[in-house]
Structures are given as C-alpha cells and as structure tokens.
Amino acid sequence: MRKTITSLLLAVSLSAFAQASTDDSYDVWNITEAEFGNIAPIELWIWGYYAGSNTLGMVKFAEHFNSPETPVKINSVKALFANGTATNPSSTITAVICKPDDNGMPGETIASASITAADIVCNASTKPATVFTFSEPVSIDCEFFVVMEGIANASDDMYLYCLRRNEGELCTAYHLLEDEDPVTYAPLGTYTWYKNIDDPTSIAIGVNMSNDDTNSIENIATNDNHNVVEHYSINGQRVGNNHRGIQIIRNADGSTTKVITRQ
C-alpha cells in the first residue's frame, strides 16, 4: 500500500535547466527555470514528507540525471531544503553520486560528500541551496543518480522542495522503501528502490558541472561543411562568437556543437 505513495544543454537535453556560472561551470536541474516558482514540500499527511522525514519506511531519496552529451566533472551537489530541523544538529547528511544498476535503479557509488544537519540553509523567500562539495571533481560519462542519505529520520523535521507534476509527465524522483509483508504490512528489514511514477515528481536537487578538460575546445574552427550561423549561451541566449565560457553553436547544416572558449 505504501508503494503507491509515493538535462542538459540547449539541443542536448530537454528535461533539465542549465544555468551558467561565472567560471566554466554550470548548474543542471531537472526543474526548469519557469517551474522553480512552483516548488513546494510534499506532505504525506500524518506520515511526514516525501524527500524528507517520514514514518513510511522511505529512508533514502534520489534524483536521476540523463547521460551528458560529453564526459563531464561534477563539482558539487546543490539541494534546496524547505526545512532542516534535526534532533541532533551534528547528524550527517550525505549526497552520493551513483551509477544505475542493471534494473535502472541507484547502484554503484562513485563519490559522496557530507555535511551536518546544522549546515543546512533554509529561507522560504530566497530558497538558497545547501551545497555538498566533493573533495575532487567526479568524472561521469553516463546517466547517474544523486542519492540523499540521512534526511529520513522520523524524529526530525527535515525535507526538500519538490516539483509535483501531472500524471504521465516527467518523473525523476526515486525512493528507497522498506519492504513489508503483503498481508500484515509488517516491515521485513530489507529495502527496494522505486521510481515515484504514481506521483510524478522532481526533487529540487541539482549538480554543478564542468566539462572534462580533455574534451574542451579552446578555439572554434569552421569549414565549408559546418558554417556557423548562431551562437548561444548555456541558458539559451544568443551571444557573440567571443562569448567566454560554454557555447552551443548551431551550424548551417542543422547540427549543433558544444564548445568552451577561454579568452
């Protein structure tokens, strides 16, 4: 019964909103810029919150990200907490980068970064991000998950913002749920990952990325087969060919190229 309660650049991924930073890094979310105005906590009535403290046996939550067009490095995870109250402020909250397993669920751990509950930042007006920074950038060239651990303690009052969508729309949220006896509903002490398809949702978790240096292009060359017709910034705005940072180039033949310029 509880089981039912439940990216990347212009012309590269339609499911994510990418925001340029002042350096060569950029933020990627599965929530578009327009949708951010609709994020809110998801209350589960008397049982707590989705992507937060609850008594339903959901102990971890994850956000899925599509495979990048080219290899990238993940510098940090950004999470928007609506509330971060913990009975033990020194308790650990961890963001984990995982590759999918054979069933498409969070599997192999690639890297993790932790903070204490006391480090969570919350403001209902500005919705600041709590940042989990990795000791070394995490190289990734495939789809991946960001798994949040440590926020499901039922005695806490801690939960993330989410975007709830309509039936059949984009769903990128997953949760690890304790298994139960199908007759008595008694907990079995084992756990299974589920995609939240009964209530399509994206959790307000983003990643700060940089392109892998080995895939950077310092200068743009054109030829007769690929005449450049337009340059765009990471957030889809038309820019000049001397725009510093990441550019999306649309060629005359309809193809697109992602480049980095450092000037």
What would you note in describing this structure?
32% of the residues are buried. The strands form six sheets. The chain has a six-stranded antiparallel β-sheet, with no helix packed on it. It is 0% helix and 47% strand. β1 and β2 form a beta hairpin. The chain is built from no helices and 20 strands. With 263 residues, it is mainly β. The protein starts with 16 loop residues before the first strand and ends with a strand. The protein has strands at 17-20, 25-29, 42-43, 49-50, 58-65, 72-79, 81-85, 92-100, 106-116, 130-140, 144-149, 157-160, 162-164, 173-180, 187-195, 201-203, 205-211, 228-232, 245-251, 256-261. It is globular, with a radius of gyration of 20 Å.
Task: Provide a brief overview of the structure.
The chain has 263 residues and is mainly β.
* Number of beta-strand segments: 20
Uncertain spans: 1-15, 215-225
* Chain-averaged pLDDT: 84
Cα shape: globular
Structural class: mainly beta
Order of helices and strands: EEEEEEEEEEEEEEEEEEEE
Helix content: under 10%
Count of individual helical segments: 0
Span of the ends, CA to CA:
58 Å
Kindly provide the radius of gyration, computed on alpha-carbon positions and rounded to a whole number of angstroms.
Answer: 20 Å
Biggest sheet features: 6 strands, antiparallel
